[in-house]
Amino acid sequence: MADRDEREAEPPEGAGGPEAPADGDAERRRRRAQFLRELNEARELRDRVQPRRARAARMRQQMRMRTFRW
Q1: Are the C-beta atoms of 13 and 24 separated by less than 8 Å?
Q2: In which domain, by residue range, is 62 found?
Q3: pLDDT tens digit sequence for 15-50
Q4: How far apart are CA 47 and CA 35, in angstroms?
Q5: Does the residue 49 lie in any domain?
Q6: How many CB atoms are located within 10 Å of the residue 36 CB?
Q7: Under a CB-based contact definition with an 8 Å cutoff, are residues 14 and 24 in contact?
Q8: Three-class SS state of 50
Q9: pTM for the full model?
Q10: 35-42: Cβ within 8 A, 24+ apart
Q11: Basic and acidic residues composition bias: which ranges (predicted)?
Q12: Are the beta carbons of 31 and 8 closer than 8 angstroms?
């Protein structure tokens, strides 16, 4: 769940290629920002509701970061 790609599920409207209008790009960025805010809010809520699962996920993430090679 947490490793899921954070892109929108629906394709942007008017995606006609490189000549897409700038206002459509701004709208896409606005919708993406809203989506990411809601996603972050949902994760925070889940962490508050399920503290044991959230702690286990934090521990797994820390272990992944410890074993990551630069």
Answers
A1: yes
A2: 22-67
A3: 555 555 678 899 999 999 999 999 999 999 998 999
A4: 18
A5: yes
A6: 13
A7: yes
A8: coil
A9: 0.49
A10: 35/6, 35/8, 36/6, 39/6
A11: 1-10
A12: yes
